[in-house]
Amino acid sequence: MNTLAMLTSTVAGTVDVPDIDDTTSYWRWDFAWEVLPEMLRSFFQVTLLVTVVGTLIAVVLGLALAILIRVLPRPLAWIITWIANFIRMTPIVVQLLVLFYGFVWMEPMTIALLVYGIHYSTYMSEVYRAGIDSVPTGQWEATTALSMPATRVWSRVIIPQALRSTVPSLGNYAISMFKDTPFLIAISVMEMVTTALEIGGFTYRYIETITIAGLIFLVASYLTAVLVNRLEKRLAYQH
Amino acid sequence: MPTNTEHQQTQPVIEFQDVEKRYGNKTVLNDLSFKIERGERVTLIGPSGSGKTTVLRLVMTLEELTGGYVFIDGKPLAYEQRGGKRLPVSKRDQKQLRTRIGMVFQHFNLFPNMTVIENMIEAPVHVLGKSKAEATARAHELLAQVGLPDKADAHPSSLSGGQQQRVAIARALAMDPEILLLDEVTSALDPEVVGDVLQILRDVAATTNVTMLIVTHEMSFARDVSHRVMMLDGGKIIESDDPETIFTKPNNERTQQFLSAVLGND
Ligand SMILES: Nc1ncnc2c1ncn2[C@@H]1O[C@H](COP(=O)(O)OP(=O)(O)OP(=O)(O)O)[C@@H](O)[C@H]1O
Ligand SMILES: [Mg+2]
């Protein structure tokens, strides 16, 4: 833990560190209050931003992947499937590092948004695929019998019915993206947990910052779950 | 029993020419040829597995045609002969022809995420290019015709099976099809609503000149509504005649056996 903290403090060093020199008390409220704004700032500016933008990219790109794999001719669909499998099977940290060192001209934040968005799109495309497969064949046949054009078939019949079963899983992936953001430490982006460790590196107090980080994650994940639940209800139709 | 003589000179609206249908190496239809004239109502009968559904699905392009040719109004639907070769018809031409064909399924297949009226105007607006107002007006007319004038804004899930099937019939008619395919449209319904649905189809038969290709186990309906009955067995049509002849004095022994089994069980 300590070495990790040292490492990060050498990396960024932009954190406003409170001047408290107390290594004996277990929990200090004044310290907790003092570091809270800094923690929230890194949460909103990095963790939340990466998760929200990453989820938006993943939700759209994932759907595009699922549809492309379904409509493209075999060889092309296979190529896309394999690329997606490859991205899904490699750790997100490795992908962050490859872009970080391989494309040095890119902003770390841009890398973060791309990597989280694309990585999770490969998971979400699997969810969409299952959702698309769950639409009964009779629905496809009805669209053929009505000669509906492909765009209307997808937008009005298949996607609305596929989404019904996918929203909860998509929500879970959004939450798990939240929980993957600490990996951003690998490319020196100061997200919330890195900030907590950084503060610890200077003050030798970890319990408050780490607890606060945990609580913020908890609240954020809970709110996401509530949001997903609402969305699920709104998308539902009588059955 | 209705008669239909004026169609004799015109081009057949549906023509099967040496049609063969295989699933894997299982041959379901073999050397099947027949013609259906404009405005004609034809019922396909035959034992389970004889390929009745397959014939309808081939006309609706829901199945790949593995051999032979199908023509709609004289134009090839799936494959055509070009330079001595059997080649697939362009997707565009196929779509064009397909808009003339409507189908009602055994399990209705309404879109559950749309209301009744949305189900009915989707294709007229986005395929035929009708205005929304025009399509909606026509849909209301058809809903009244099938006895569901107050269900326009209902969701399919809130309707009974019989009501859903009536909406499905109305949805198919909203496309003003030249050909209407009906595959056992009452066999998923409760017995007490079968009569209502068949009555609607009788009305459609009486008031329009849409060509109908029907698969049904309701023999009295078949008898009343069809101009012709075709008996399918072993992937071939073994007898084709007016319903009077088929139901009272069939020539083929297999037809006799089949009908006595079916009518005997009723
Ligand atoms: N997708 C398929 N794959 C393989 N075999 C099939 C498929 N669809 C139909 N068959 C077979 O083709 C044959 C004809 O089927 P079809 O559904 O056309 O018969 P049918 O006359 O409509 O019978 P029923 O009265 O039971 O509805 C059957 O032997 C059936 O098992
Ligand atoms: Mg059948």
Task: Summarize the entry for a quick read.
The complex is a heterodimer of chains A (239) and B (266). Chain A is an all-alpha fold.
Radius of gyration of chain B: 19 Å
Largest interface: A-B, 19 and 27 residues
> In angstroms, what separates the terminal alpha carbons of chain A?
52 Å
Biggest sheet record of chain A: none
Give the overall form of chain A. Answer: elongated
Give the CATH architecture of chain A. Orthogonal Bundle
Compressed to H and E, one letter per element, the order of chain B equals: EEEHEEEEHEHHHEHEHEEHH
Regions of chain A with pLDDT < 50 over 5+ consecutive residues? Answer: 1-13
User: How much of the residues of chain B is beta strand, in percent?
Assistant: 25-35%
Structural class from helices and strands of chain A?
A: mainly alpha
Please, what is the CATH homologous superfamily of chain A?
A: MetI-like
Task: Spell out which ligands are present.
Answer: adenosine-5'-triphosphate, magnesium ion
Q: How many DSSP-defined strands of chain A?
A: 0
How many distinct helices of chain B?
9
Instruction: Work out the count of structural domains of chain A.
Output: 1
User: Would you count the extended β strands of chain B for me?
Assistant: 12
CATH class of chain A: Mainly Alpha
Q: Into which percent range does the helicity of residues of chain B fall?
A: 25-40%
Radius of gyration of chain A equals 22 Å
Label the structural class of chain B: alpha/beta
Beta-strand content estimate of chain A: under 5%
What does this structure look like?
The complex is a heterodimer of chains A (239) and B (266). Chain A has 239 residues and is mainly alpha-helical. Chain A is 78% helix and 0% strand. Chain A has a single domain (39-234), classed as Orthogonal Bundle (MetI-like fold), CATH 1.10.3720.10. Chain A has 9 helices and no strands. Chain A starts with a helix and ends with a helix. Mean pLDDT of chain A is 88; it is low at 1-13. Chain B is of the alpha/beta class and 266 residues long. Helix content of chain B is 36%, strand content 26%. Chain B has helices at 52-59, 91-98, 116-126, 132-145, 161-173, 191-207, 219-225, 243-248, 253-265; strands at residues 14-23, 26-36, 41-45, 67-72, 75-76, 79-82, 85-88, 101-104, 179-183, 211-215, 228-233, 236-241. In chain B, the strands form 3 sheets. Chain B has a 6-stranded mixed β-sheet with strand order 8-9-10-3-11-12, sandwiched between helices. In chain B, strands 2-1-4-5 form a 4-stranded antiparallel β-sheet, covered by helices on one side. Classes of the chains: A mainly alpha (239), B alpha/beta (266). The A-B interface holds A 136, 138-139, 141-142, 144-149, 152, 156-157, 160-161, 237-239 and B 60-62, 95, 98-99, 101-103, 105, 107, 109-114, 122-123, 126-127, 155, 157-158, 171-172, 175. Residues 52-53 of chain B line the site of magnesium ion (MG).
